[in-house]
Structure formats: structure tokens, C-alpha cells
Amino acid sequence: MDILILRLDDSAEYLSLFGGSSGGYMSGLIESATAILCSSEKRLEINAHNVANISTPGFKRQISFAHLINSSTGSDHYDPSISVVRNFDQGSIKPTNNPFDLAISGPGLFQIRAPQGMIYSRQGQFRLSADGTLVTPQGYVLQQAGGGDLVVDHPDASVLDDGTVLDQGAPVGRLAVYAPADPSQLVAVGESFFASPEGAMHEVSGAVFRQGAVENSNVSLGDEMVAVTAAVRQSETGARLVQIYDDLIGRAITNFGQGGR
Predict the structure, then answer these.
(1) What is the pTM for the complete model shown?
(2) CB 28 within 8 A of CB 2
């Protein structure tokens, strides 16, 4: 970020703070301060949301980052506005006492049928419903490879590492995982579910299924504390810019009132 040092020698210079070329600098100063403060507030909101979901199975951490843009002069400038993306790194896998809980080790998301259509998730908490389908705590239905509800008739059904589902030793279906070519196409639906444009998801290989386990969120409290510290420092920078602006305006008014003396 460019740093501007103003030397104000007479009342005319102070008046120019409100218009003319110097006015642009003053306007830019307060605009930058405002953008920085808004950005730091957004970053803190994201950090708080991540920490609130540190125990949510399958939750994927949100990451904020600022932009480095190229101006018309060809020089790089810091743009304090931020973008937010999801970090789909693998979370740790935790064993549970539920044989219908499933964890994915590797890439991809479960395909799940919800009232609003197909959604996708790493959240692997399932239970056997009365009609033999595997459903999430919200009642959404797990889908098998190629589409269609996965149905088992007995509570001792098992899932092999490759996703093959056995009911009393006989194969009754296969699980698959899906991903879009561009992760930015995923739109959050709740805390651990995502929607995607029609046709954007495709089956991916390389995943291993773990029965009787769930994937923890990939939020690290240490990482969030570091991010909070950075956001607070950014906020302090914005506050300092506001103070500089206020001081300069005060000096301009005082000197103008004194007739430039």
C-alpha cells in the first residue's frame, strides 16, 4: 500500500484537502480505512463460524484472503476486499459405535437426496430408517453409485473399503463419491452440505470408505487463533488510518480558521 506524506504550508493547501488533487488522496485514505475495517470484520465472522463448527462432522473450514490487483499503471496494489473459499483438506477420522456411520478417506463427497434435490457432503452420520434407506440426522437419503436410494434389509449390513454394500453377505449396491471440476461451483446448504449446478458433479475414484466412523471437521483451533490475530492487526491498521484522516482534517480546519498563520 502506498504511503502518502503531506506537507501543508498554508490555508490554500488545507483547503485543497477537500477538493482538487489532494482531495483525491484524502478520499482514498478514508475509503481504504473503511474497506480494511469491513474486511477485518468479515474475517472475524468467518473465524467465529469455523470455531463454532469445530465439532461438526464433515465441516470444511472457510478461508478468507485478500486480493493483489494490478492497477492501470501496472503496479501491484493491495485490495482489502476478501474472497471466501472452502478448504476441502481431509479431516481426522473418528471411530463411532454406529455401524451405519461412514467416513471418506480421500477425495469426493457423498451424494444425498434432500427435498430440494441432490446435495453433497462429507458428513457421514447415517441411521437405518424404517424403509431400509440410510438417512442423515435431517432425514436426507444416501444415494448409491449411479443414482437411487441405497436400501438394505438388515441392520448387520456392511460396507467394504471400495464402497460395496453387503446385506447378509450378498452385494446390494455400491457407494460412490462425487466432486465438481471446479470446487467453487459448490454452494453451501447448511453447515456440512453443498449444492451444485446440474451436471457439474462427476464420480471420482481414489476414496476409501470407513464403516463405523465419521470424519471430523478440518478446523484447527490453532489456525483460527492465528487468523484472528491477523484480522485484529488488520483492524488496528484501519483504525490508525481513520485517526490519521481525522488528525489531518482537524489540522486543516484549525489552520484555515487562523487564516493560514
Answers:
(1) 0.73
(2) no
